[in-house]
Write a structure and sequence with these properties.
Largest sheet: 9 strands, mixed
Strand content: 15-25%
Distance between the termini: 27 Å
Low-confidence stretches: 132-142, 387-411
Number of helices: 17
Number of strands: 17
Shape: globular
CATH topology of the largest domain: Rossmann fold
Radius of gyration: 28 Å
C-alpha cells in the first residue's frame, strides 16, 4: 500500500481527489489537512509515501511547503495540484523538490502518471536509505557538519581559504574525518592548489545519484597525503550538467554520515548546484574583498539566494580577505553594508607569502603562522567543526590602575542602563509572537467551526474545543445569511486570558455541505 496525505482546504477539491485516488490501486489516504502547519505535523507523524498539496493551501506558499517536506522527509514524494494554472508557481514547486504538478480540472490519466512518479521516487529513496544502513558498519550517530564557502566574485580567494582550512583542521584535530568538495563546476581549482591525481569527479557521482550508496561516493573520493578526502570538480565543463540540485542534496546527505566536517568550495556563480548546497549547509561563508565590485557581486548573489528561498542574508557569515590600509572600503564600514555576520578576524593581503604554496601545490610551503592562526579563528567563529567558539581575549595590561577601574565602572553603569531597554524589546517580541499565535489558533477555530456547521453540529462548541482553554471565552462564532461561518477571537495582551487589545481577529469560511 502507498500511504498518502492530502493537504487541501477546498472541500470540493478534496472530494475530487478522494474520488480519483479511490481508482488508483494501492493508494491509501491516511489524512486530509487544511493548513500547511497541520500538513507538516501530519507528515512528521504519519511518514507517508506520497503527499498531495493544493497550491492554495496556505498560510505558507506551495514551494515553501514542498521544500520543508522534502528537507524533513527525503523519502516522501510530493505532488502539487495547480488550480491557479500559474506556470511560474509550478516551476518554483518543481525547483523546490516536487515530483509532479497536475493541473485543474483533474484528469485521471494526469493524476495517475504524476502519482506513479512520486510513488517510484519514494520507493527508490526508501531502498537507498535502508540499503545504506544495512550495507555499511559506520557510526550511526555521526552527523557531519557542512560548511559552504562561496566567493562574492571570482578571484577573492575562496578556494585557497577553503582548501587551507580543511588541511589545517585535519592537521590540528587528530582523528577527525574531513572532506573537501570542489563545487565550482565552471572553474574548479582545488586540484590546482594541492597535488591530487583525479580519477573521477563529482559529475561521475551525480550521474548515479538516483542509485547512490556510500560505497559509490567513497570510491570517487581522492585521498590526499594530508589526510583529507577530496571530491573534485569535473575536468570537462559539459559534464557539469549532470550535477543537479537533487544530486548535490543526495551527495551531501550521505557524506554527512561518513565525515565529521564537510567543506564545500561553492565558487562564485549562483548555479542550481551551489544553491542546493547553500540551502542544506549548516553554515555559509561568503568571501569578499574590501572593494565596491566585490560588494556589488555579494549583493547580487544574496538576492539570488533569497529569491530562491534557500538562505537569507542574516544567516550568512562574511569573511573579508586582502585587507590593507589603502582599501577604498574600510573593514569597519563593511558591517554597515550588510545584515550578515561579518567575521571579526580579517585576512590581510598576503599574495607573496601564499604564492610559494600555490606554485608548489603544497599548502605546507606557506609558513607564516599568522595566516594559519587567522584561519583557525575564522573556523571557530563560523563553527566549521561545531558551534561557533567564542574567541578568548587575553587581558590587556593598562598603565595606571585608576584608569582601568574608572573604565570598568563606566561599563557597569552602561550595562545597567541598557536593562530596561532589553526588557522592553523582549516584551515587544513576546507580544508579537502572541499575536501571531492568536492568528493561528483563530484559523484552527474557524476550520473546526466550518466542519461542525457542515455536518449539523454546534460550531461555537467546536471552535472553542479547537483552541487552548485560556482563550475559549474570547471566541465568537456568527453564522451569516449566506451560510458562511465567521469566527473572531480577541488578541491577548502578554498572556491569554489576562487582557485583550482593542479589536479582534476574524476569519470567514464558506461551508460546503457534506454529502
Amino acid at each position: 500500500m502507498t500511504k498518502v496525505v492530502v493537504g487541501a482546504a477546498d472541500q470540493g477539491l478534496v472530494m475530487e481527489l478522494r474520488s480519483v485516488l479511490a481508482e488508483i490501486e494501492g493508494a491509501d489516504i491516511l489524512s486530509y489537512e487544511e493548513s500547511s502547519h497541520e500538513l507538516s505535523l501530519a507528515v512528521a507523524r504519519l511518514k507517508p509515501d506520497v503527499v498531495i498539496i493544493h497550491d492554495a493551501l496556505g498560510p505558507q506558499s506551495a514551494p515553501e511547503v514542498v521544500r520543508e517536506i522534502v528537507f524533513r522527509s527525503p523519502t516522501t514524494g510530493v505532488m502539487v495540484v495547480n488550480t491557479a494554472m500559474d506556470a511560474q508557481g509550478a516551476l518554483l514547486a518543481m525547483e523546490a523538490g516536487a515530483k509532479g504538478v497536475v493541473g485543474y480540472p483533474l484528469f485521471f490519466d494526469d493524476v495517475l502518471s504524476r502519482f506513479e512518479v512520486a510513488r517510484q521516487w519514494s520507493e527508490r529513496m526508501t531502498g537507498l536509505i535502508s540499503g545504506a544502513v544495512a550495507d555499511t558498519a559506520r557510526d550511526l550517530g555521526r552527523h557531519g557538519r557542512v560548511t559552504v564557502f562561496a566567493g562574492a566574485k571570482g578571484g577573492v580567494g575562496t578556494t585557497t581559504i577553503a582548501t587551507h582550512m580543511a588541511i589545517d583542521l585535519q592537521r590540528k584535530v587528530k582523528g577527525s574525518k574531513v572532506c573537501l568538495i570542489d563545487l565550482d563546476l565552471l572553474a574548479g581549482d582545488v586540484s590546482g592548489i594541492i597535488e591530487a591525481r583525479q580519477r573521477v569527479s563529482i559529475a561521475d557521482v551525480a550521474k548515479v545519484a538516483e542509485d547512490l550508496s556510500p560505497a559509490t561516493i567513497l570510491d570517487a573520493l581522492v585521498r590526499h597525503e594530508s589526510g583529507i578526502s577530496l571530491l573534485l570538480a569535473p575536468v570537462q565543463v559539459q559534464e557539469s550538467e549532470y550535477v543537479t540540485a537533487s544530486a548535490v542534496r543526495a551527495i551531501l546527505g550521505l557524506l554527512r554520515q561518513e565525515f565529521d566536517v564537510i567543506l564545500v568550495d561553492g565558487g562564485s556563480h549562483a548555479t542550481p548546484a551551489q544553491a542546493a548546497a547553500v540551502e542544506v549547509a549548516d553554515a555559509v561563508v561568503v568571501v569578499v574583498t574590501p572593494d565596491v565590485l566585490a560588494m556589488r557581486a555579494f549583493r547580487r548573489n544574496v538576492s539570488t539566494w533569497e529569491s530562491l528561498g534557500v538562505r537569507s542574508e542574516q544567516e550568512l557569515h562574511v569573511v573579508v580577505n586582502r585587507v590593507s590600509r589603502d582599501d577604498a572600503l574600510h573593514f569597519d564600514a563593511l558591517s554597515k553594508l550588510t545584515s550578515a555576520s561579518v567575521v571579526s578576524t580579517r585576512l590581510p593581503t598576503a599574495l607573496r607569502s601564499l604564492e610559494r604554496g600555490v606554485n608548489a601545490r603544497n599548502p605546507d610551503e606557506v609558513r607564516e603562522a599568522t595566516w594559519w592562526s587567522a584561519l583557525e579563528r575564522i573556523g571557530a567563529e563560523v563553527g566549521v567543526s561545531g558551534p561557533a567558539a567564542v574567541p578568548t581575549v587575553a587581558p590587556v595590561k593598562r598603565r595606571g590602575g585608576r584608569r582601568a577601574k574608572v573604565e570598568a565602572g563606566q561599563i557597569t553603569v552602561e550595562t545597567v542602563a541598557l536593562v530596561p531597554v532589553v526588557v522592553l524589546i523582549c516584551l515587544m517580541v513576546w507580544q508579537v509572537a502572541l499575536t501571531a499565535l492568536a492568528f493561528v489558533w483563530n484559523g484552527h477555530a474557524a476550520n473546526a467551526a466550518t466542519r461542525a456547521q457542515s455536518i449539523g453540529e454546534d460550531p461555537l462548541e467546536a471552535a472553542r474545543d479547537a483552541i487552548p482553554d485560556s482563550m475559549r471565552d474570547s471566541v465568537h462564532v456568527t453564522v451569516l445569511s449566506d451560510g458562511s461561518v465567521r469566527v473572531s477571537t480577541d488578541i491577548p495582551v502578554m498572556c491569554p486570558g489576562c487582557a485583550a487589545l482593542p479589536g479582534d481577529i476574524s476569519q470567514t469560511n464558506d461551508v460546503v455541505e457534506e454529502p
